[in-house]
CorA-like Mg2+ transporter
Amino acid sequence: MFDAERQRLLGSCIWSPNEGRLGYFEAWTDGSAAGSAASDCRTGFLDDDEVEPWLHQQGRFSPRARPGQAGPTMRIRLLMCERVTWLPVGFAMSRSSFLAMETAFRLSAETLPILVANLGKQYSNLRFRADNDSRLESIVLTAKLPQMFQLGNLGLAMSHHLDTGTTLAFLHGWNVFSDRDHVTKEPIVPHAESLHGVMRSAAALWAHPLFLPTVLVREHLSRAEAFKSHLAPKVTDIEMALGVTKSARLVGSEIDASVQHMIRDDGERLRITAFLNTTATDVVNMLGILEWDLQYVKFLGRVNGDLGALHGRIPPAADAELRSIVEYLEFEALSIVSFVGAMKTRLDLQLNVLYNFIAQAGNNLNMKIAANAGLDSTAMKTLAVVTMIFLPPTFIATLFSMSMFDWQGSSSTAGDADRTVVPEFWVYWAVSVPLTLAVVAGWRVWWHFQKGYYENTYLSVKPSEVPRARRRRSEGI
């Protein structure tokens, strides 16, 4: 079903054998020291042209046999490949080496489509013998962890042969060998180093079919635990910056000067908003990935139950130990999911607090604008009233100065130079003062009716808008 997509991806992926690193991990048991992880495992790096000799255990990769003893029984053969590009997905190996590995490990056609996926995916297939449909021969399992560079971006494809108890696996992802985070460039512990430590310490589980998938999810959850410890102080810093902290803490219970400065300062509000949203994004992404981890652990439990029902030849001690580990990982995932969910709730609260602060800052600005507008309105009203008072006298003065009025009396003589005001000057006051009073009174009456109309139209509640029960009470019904 997936072969067409596989062929397309084989052509679109980047195959760069000269970039990144290839490495391997091998573990085996022998008759003298079965389960001795100190002497029965080895690791190393590979060149691309050494992949096929390693796959076929030729040359320096041939099994180590002690004199006089039978050859060792291989338990784990893990090929690890660094991811070298983001998109298209890049492999630190050639296409021919990948195809050789795919054939030698008897992986399914779903391997490459799952490895290049961005979201978390898992796949398992139980293979039965061709001559006996009721007897299991092997199990093929592929898992791609959801992408989040703080937790890891790993994919595992494996097949486990039940008769020999041998697991053949391929691991691909960022920072498998690189000790610098490909995003932040900060030093980190490579996945290969931590995986080697876990695998060496669990020699009793090497022959279990689900050992490597369990180790993979354990690595993912350990990174999640570390990143959770990194996010928790950030959430506390945000709570302290906004003045709203967790319950049972008195620190920050009052809005201090720094919070008031943040409310007023645009740059500080932008900084805390960006910091809060970045942290919230990390928490939301991590929560989604952890929920996938939880489902993946349950998936491993179901696969283990199917193996027990159909195969039934897994050593009881190893199977019981792995079941207990899977149960532990499930509860660990639940614990981290619960903690991260609480952090998300706290950040949601802080987002609401921040938005309220921003709204208060906006309301304060609107109040200042309204106050300034009120001052402007008062000034304009004063100017209009003053203009209205002086306008009638100005009009009368202009009118009386026209040539149609002759204020030069018949008794006046050209030599009457001491006279500066004509006797008829009282006419100006007799007309302008009543006219001014009439204009002011008319404006006041108009304003009274206009104010009442505005209040009735826009400020009063219409009877149709009053609830029916309230109208009945007011009407005494």
The chain has two domains: 1-63+70-207, 218-377. The two ends are 77 Å apart (CA to CA). Residues 28 and 86 are 35 Å apart (CA to CA).
